[in-house]
């Protein structure tokens, strides 16, 4: 066989190998504990796409109702539509940005790729190209899932009562504007997240990347969730930002894509045209940066990763502190072991750290939405009074964190390694659970302690200290509530998603969230405003905690032992949260 | 005395082990041999309580262990075939976890864990995450974890996997010392040479059934063969290894024909 034959055979082989690798890398986006551990990728994909389609459709139906109510004109639709366009552009960026953040490690070649594919006769260029192909698939599928249906529905809904609308003059430009604006804004969000991840990999050595990566992921999720919760305020101020101009408008990515949207539907303002140019330039530049990063970044060698997981001196010191705390708080060696194991798992397992970061992010976002509302209503003076919005921050953060820990400990970190826990199983099981509960309790105490200086900056000492004491009692109550029937050892039990359906019971969850955060804050407000229930409130909380603890002890006595299992074959892969 | 009584285990109707019975006394080191898929790991799983038998039972000190598995497990140390460990813990933390789960005194946990890690050559790496360990280092952690609570029953499933020559020699002597200390040792392995030197008695398993249960010397004498390897070959290998090897090389090099 001569060289030409070999080259042509290689070229023929190249395309199927590229497709094969692209599909393989695309599947790796779903090998993620946050999506469906152990689940079938195809079923997982359908659930994920379903989850992407839902918000767009819901918003389309809710927001666009106003266009069905009265006969109107094209000019009026254009004026009304600015807020809706900004909403759609923002929503696309938030949804796709979060999806990309959750899976950001999968956008680059990692140690596993190096180990598995490095021994095969596959060039680095082909691998990097396939990674980009997988990124392209990710963009095409999810950007389309989030935006395709609204793009086809929104123009119809917006123009249904417009007397002067024409097909080519209005309907087609509106459809193109919606499609281009939302698809490109979502694509830019994904590319920006990938570029940030690549930039971190270039800037940081492997050890630091491993430690700092999840923090950056959590911070990004926090920013995106904060933006999502603050969308009403953001949309309300959208027109003001556009007319005011300046840095706020020109450096704001959603405004770039709003400019693109408005330019395509024919708005003549030069500001929109400039923003549209910025949007297109940003997409092109970010895409270029991603291509360069994917091709330029060497696959992380396994030796690099090995050196990355050597425990630092600070970590050893922290582990020693946890151990000493366990000695102080817990009498039984199994409880201490359980505490150390749970804390180590939560602190060191990347996916579990991400759960906690996301939970804190969601809690902060929820809390800040109330604070923003209060600030908008009465300025700084409002924050200096203990109001429901500010008093609810502490219980909200404690609740989100404890729920996240409750959820995280049921997700296995290294399921095949659970044999050692099975071999050392003891009855009664209360000693094992005591360590897990103490972890959640300590996490809540840390939140309460961290908020004391913030509250002191806003309120008097007596108010701050009373609120902190209520926070400690609340933490005990929440831990007693959520850890009353724990019967699986942390990180070793199979996670079965979908036990409680957030999709269908969201109203119930919303009511529960209010009852567990708003109601105590309201009761505390009564104490500070009217001097009522100052003694009764802590007494009621202590009593409720005692009842729950009594019930837990009774339940634990009835439990036959810990439940250990391998991942069952019939795990329903789902995005539904298990709380 | 540890006793397996008529153990059988079926997976979807297929027998992994069938009617396996044997006894191991204190101070005895029993070699457990068999080709791949013979049922060795299944038996080991049943003996450690990780797998429930379809029928039969395991008896320890005259009692059926299924009546009080928790109590039985206090006396068992186990080195599994696959070095499955929690990658985010350091070697020392893992041993501390195991020691505490076994309800050992904290000082004893610390002393034993540090001592074993030092003796097994992991002193410098004891604070590194297990995720960074080589296979041999993980194996040493498993060996330390199996020994640290001074168990009466030790079950080793391919314990030399990944160990270097020195570590393997040390481990062989550890097993011999454990036998002398009166421990009950089950040693499942493919390395016939080590089994021949270390074990006082061997069981050969083939297709889930016991085909030999005797001392190495007696088996050799009985079958008029020179080594345990020859005995093993005679008992369980139906194909001619030389011919299979030649066929494999012929197939991949394209020479000759099958």
Can you offer a commentary on this structure?
The complex is a heterodimer of chains A (579) and B (258). Chain A has 579 residues and is an all-alpha fold. Helix content of chain A is 76%, strand content 0%. Chain A has helices at residues 3-27, 41-63, 66-69, 74-102, 111-117, 124-159, 167-203, 206-229, 231-236, 238-244, 247-250, 253-264, 270-296, 302-308, 313-329, 333-348, 350-383, 388-391, 393-408, 419-423, 430-458, 461-482, 506-530, 536-558. The N and C termini of chain A lie far apart (63 Å). The model of chain A is unreliable at 33-41, 301-310 and 566-579 (pLDDT under 50). Chain B has 258 residues and is of the alpha/beta class. Chain B has a domain at 2-75 and 151-253: 3-Layer(aba) Sandwich (Rossmann fold). Chain B is 41% helix and 23% strand. Chain B is built from 10 helices and 10 strands. Chain B has helices at residues 40-48, 69-74, 91-101, 106-119, 135-147, 165-180, 192-198, 216-223, 228-236, 241-253; strands spanning 2-11, 14-24, 29-33, 55-60, 63-64, 76-79, 153-157, 184-188, 201-206, 209-214. Chain B has a 6-stranded mixed beta sheet with strand order 6-7-8-3-9-10, with helices on both faces. Chain B has a 4-stranded antiparallel beta sheet with strand order 2-1-4-5, covered by helices on one side. At the A-B interface, α14, α15, α16 and α20 of A face α2 and α3 of B.
Keywords:
heterodimer; A: 579 residues; 24 helices; 76% helix; B: 258 residues; alpha/beta; Rossmann fold; four-stranded antiparallel beta sheet; 41% helix
Please summarize what this structure is.
The complex is a heterodimer of chains A (579) and B (258). With 579 residues, chain A is mostly helical. Chain A is 76% helix and 0% strand.
Sketch the topology of chain A as an H/E string, one letter per element: HHHHHHHHHHHHHHHHHHHHHHHH
The shape of chain B, in one word, is: globular
**Considering DSSP H and I runs of 4 or more, what fraction of the residues of chain A is helical?**
over 70%
**Biggest interface, which chains?**
A-B, 34 and 36 residues
User: Number of helical runs of chain B?
Assistant: 10
Radius of gyration of chain A: 27 Å
Q: What fold name stands as the CATH topology of one domain in chain B?
A: Rossmann fold
| Helix-and-strand structural type of chain B | alpha/beta
Stretches of chain B where pLDDT falls below 50 for ≥5 residues? none
Broad shape of chain A: globular
Could you describe the largest sheet of chain A, including whether it forms a barrel? Answer: none
Q: What's the total count of β strands of chain A? A: 0
Largest sheet of chain B: 6 strands, mixed
CATH superfamily of one domain in chain B: P-loop containing nucleotide triphosphate hydrolases
Report the structural category of chain A: mainly alpha
User: What portion of residues of chain A belong to β-strands?
Assistant: under 5%
- Distance from N terminus to C terminus of chain A (CA atoms, Å) equals 63 Å
What is the name of the CATH class of one domain in chain B? Alpha Beta
């Amino acid at each position: 066989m001569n060289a030409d034959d070999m080259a042509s055979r290689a070229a023929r082989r190249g395309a199927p190998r590229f497709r094969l690798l692209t599909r393989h890398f695309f599947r790796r986006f779903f090998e993620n504990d946050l999506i469906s551990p152990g689940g079938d990728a195809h079923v997982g994909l359908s659930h994920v796409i379903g989850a992407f389609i839902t918000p767009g459709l819901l918003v389309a139906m809710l927001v666009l109702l106003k266009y069905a109510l009265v006969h109107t004109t094209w000019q009026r639709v254009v004026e009304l539509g600015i807020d809706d366009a900004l909403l759609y552009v923002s929503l696309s960026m938030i949804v796709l940005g979060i999806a990309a953040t959750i899976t950001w490690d999968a956008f680059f070649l990692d140690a596993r790729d190096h180990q598995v594919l490095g021994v095969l006769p596959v060039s680095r260029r082909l691998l990097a190209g396939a990674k980009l192909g997988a990124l392209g698939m990710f963009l095409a599928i999810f950007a389309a899932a989030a935006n395709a249906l609204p793009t086809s529905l929104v123009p119809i809904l917006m123009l249904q009562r417009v007397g002067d609308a024409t097909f080519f003059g209005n309907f087609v430009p509106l459809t193109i504007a919606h499609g281009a604006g939302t698809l490109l804004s979502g694509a830019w969000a994904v590319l920006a997240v990938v570029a940030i991840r690549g930039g971190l990999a270039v800037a940081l050595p492997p050890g630091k990347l491993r430690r700092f990566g999840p923090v950056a992921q959590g911070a990004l999720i926090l920013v995106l969730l904060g933006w999502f919760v603050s969308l009403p305020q953001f949309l309300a101020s959208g027109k003001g930002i556009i007319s005011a101009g300046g840095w706020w408008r020109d450096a704001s990515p959603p405004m770039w894509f709003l400019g693109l949207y408005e330019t395509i539907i024919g708005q003549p303002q030069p500001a929109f045209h400039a923003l549209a140019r910025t949007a297109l330039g940003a997409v092109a530049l970010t895409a270029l940066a991603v291509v360069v990063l994917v091709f330029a970044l060497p696959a992380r060698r396994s030796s690099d990763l090995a050196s990355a997981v050597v425990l630092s001196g600070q970590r050893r010191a922290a582990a020693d502190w946890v151990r000493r705390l366990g000695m102080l708080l817990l009498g039984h060696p199994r409880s201490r072991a359980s505490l150390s194991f749970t804390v180590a798992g939560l602190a060191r397992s990347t996916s579990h750290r991400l759960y906690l970061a996301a939970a804190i992010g969601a809690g902060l976002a929820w809390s800040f939405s109330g604070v923003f509302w209060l600030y908008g209503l009465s300025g700084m003076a409002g924050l200096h009074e203990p109001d429901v919005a500010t008093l609810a921050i502490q219980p909200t953060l404690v609740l989100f964190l404890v729920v996240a820990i409750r959820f995280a400990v049921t997700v296995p970190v290294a399921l095949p390694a659970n044999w050692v826990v099975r071999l050392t199983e003891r009855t009664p099981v209360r000693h094992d659970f005591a360590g897990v509960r103490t972890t959640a309790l300590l996490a809540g105490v840390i939140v309460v302690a961290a908020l004391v200086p913030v509250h002191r900056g806003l309120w008097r000492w007596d108010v701050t200290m009373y609120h902190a004491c209520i926070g400690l009692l609340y933490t005990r109550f929440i831990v007693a509530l959520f850890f009353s029937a724990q019967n699986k050892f942390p990180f070793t039990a199979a996670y079965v998603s979908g036990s409680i359906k957030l999709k269908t019971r969201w109203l119930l969850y919303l009511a529960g969230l209010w009852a567990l955060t708003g109601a105590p804050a309201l009761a505390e407000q009564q104490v500070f405003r009217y001097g009522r229930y100052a003694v009764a409130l802590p007494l009621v909380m202590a009593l409720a905690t005692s009842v729950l603890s009594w019930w837990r002890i009774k339940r634990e006595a009835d439990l036959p032992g810990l439940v250990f299992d391998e991942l069952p074959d019939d795990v329903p892969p789902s995005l539904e949260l298990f709380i | 005395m540890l006793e397996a009584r008529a153990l059988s285990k079926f997976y979807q109707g297929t027998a992994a082990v069938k009617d396996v019975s044997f006894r191991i006394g204190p101070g005895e080191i029993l070699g457990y041999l068999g080709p791949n898929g013979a049922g060795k790991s299944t038996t080991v799983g049943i003996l450690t309580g990780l797998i429930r038998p379809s029928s039969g039972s395991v008896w320890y000190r005259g009692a059926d262990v299924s009546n009080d598995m928790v109590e039985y497990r206090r006396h068992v140390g186990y080195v599994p075939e696959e070095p499955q460990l929690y990658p985010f813990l350091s070697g020392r933390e893992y041993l501390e976890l195991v020691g505490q789960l076994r309800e050992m005194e904290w000082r004893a946990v610390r002393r034993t864990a540090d001592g074993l890690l030092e003796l097994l050559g992991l002193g410098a790496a004891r604070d590194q995450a297990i995720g960074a360990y080589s296979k041999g280092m993980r194996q040493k952690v498993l060996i330390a974890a199996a020994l640290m609570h001074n168990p009466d029953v030790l079950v080793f499933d391919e314990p030399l996997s990944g160990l270097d020559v020195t570590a393997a020699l040390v481990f062989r002597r550890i097993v011999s010392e454990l036998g002398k200390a009166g421990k009950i040792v089950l040693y499942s392995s493919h390395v016939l040479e080590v089994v021949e030197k270390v074990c006082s008695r061997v069981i050969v398993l083939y297709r889930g059934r016991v085909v030999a249960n005797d001392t190495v010397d007696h088996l050799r004498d009985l079958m008029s063969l020179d080594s345990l390897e020859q005995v093993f070959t005679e008992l369980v290998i139906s194909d001619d290894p030389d011919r299979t090897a030649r066929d494999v090389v012929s197939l991949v090099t394209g020479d000759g024909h099958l």
